[in-house]
Amino acid sequence: MEDIKGKITALAESVAGEYGVVVVDMEIAGNMRRPTLRIFIEKSGGVTLEDCERVSRAMSAVLDVEDPIKSPYVLEVSSPGLDRPLKRLKDFEASVGKLARIITRESIDKQNFFVGRITEVRDTTIILTMKNNTKMTIPVEQIAKARLEIELP
Length: 153
Description:
Helix content is 27%, strand content 39%. By secondary structure, the chain is α+β, with helices and mostly antiparallel strands. The strands form two sheets. Strands 7-6-5-4-8 form a five-stranded antiparallel β-sheet.
């Protein structure tokens, strides 16, 4: 399954590059009899419906030729949204200055749920500035789940 996901991700990144967008995530959901391929793209200034349509059409054609999944599948191409998940170190680096919610695998200072502004990414640690202006250092390997918080003006 991982090799199929890797191959589809590589194909998606190649297609996305042609349309001036970047693949930020890809997942395969459902069962392998009829899986759903979800490709999340972004670009500076935001992703439009037209961007999603163009990448979807091109990706569909590439998948038909390369045929990494032998069964019928559903292809979805969209933006990850304002409350996008943060999965890779580069996701955190690109989100410095933004508000995030992080859940850790183990307690840090007797808690495992944090909401704060990402102020720095050092090697493999995330520095959050909490609402009370305290700084929290969270090792990336301790992060179970993280996503951006929606901030309204």
